[in-house]
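[Archive record]
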Amino acid sequence: MCSTLRRVNTRSCPTQRRMLAYASVNHVEAYKHAIEGRHGQQLKLAYEEGDKYNKGIFDPFDEYKIEADGEHDEEAMEITAESVEDDDVTEEDFEQDAHPTKTIYPYKKDGSIHRTRAELVSLKAGAPAGGKFAIINLNGSQHKVTKDDVVILNKLRPVEKWAVGTTHTLTADDEQLLLIGSQDQTLVGLPYVNGGEVDVMVEEITRDKKVIIFKKKRRKNHRRKNGHKREVTFLRVLEIRFPEECVH
């Protein structure tokens, strides 16, 4: 294990100094050894499970299927622009209908990213999601995040700074980055990872689900029922970057 130490001045009190450092743990050989062993064989089976949906699931009865009466070849049933007799329909309209333009968003309505059926099957079978991860400290709470994750926090203030659509970079200078890791190495902050960065974007500011608060006093005929909705901020993790000296 090797460690790198760096000193920087604090913004709040320039006369004092603090230590911003991290311990770098390199586990490339351990990961390679695990991949070559039993763990690697399990991952291979997980990826093969997902490949079945890319190549098509084998059906032993395909060659014995008999077409029903009245069914025709798909090629004979295709409609072309030349076969359309309606004068109001042009060739450009036909091409637009055949290839409609669709806007594809990277995330679903629930906030999760779009994944193919093969990826979902591989993940369910045990394949790792992969990529970099980090532990961030925001508004008094710590969260382990990866790229494309959504973090739900108590409403961040001031609202002018954390407005919807704004992007922010979390660094060690603001005491917000505690750890960064990948499959090759892990940087453990002492107490913060100097030089690392995590880019986030404010995606939504809303209220959480209502929590019912019910109070009762025995033999006093006292009952109170109230509801409370917490104000929350949704942060989307855009990118995680290692310090420049750790990038290979």
About this structure: The helical segments are 28-36, 38-55, 74-77, 91-98, 117-125.
